[in-house]
What we know:
Layout: H1 3-15, H2 18-24, H3 29-43, E1 48-51, E2 54-57, H4 59-66
Antiparallel strand pairs: 1-2
Amino acid sequence: MDTRDLDVFVAVYEAKSISKAAKERFLSPQGCSKVIQKLEHELGCTLFARHHYGVRPTPHGDALYQR
Length: 67
């Protein structure tokens, strides 16, 4: 995990959308999604519940954002 990964996480959390966050960070949506998946794998928990209309943070995602 590095600061770039956390920056992408914050962008997704605040935008509540992987595609919107990807545009803000000049990434592809697939690249942004891979960063989130990498964080989830490293932390051993799910950070976002994914839906066809966007993402919703899980309690683990809320806790990480607050830190």
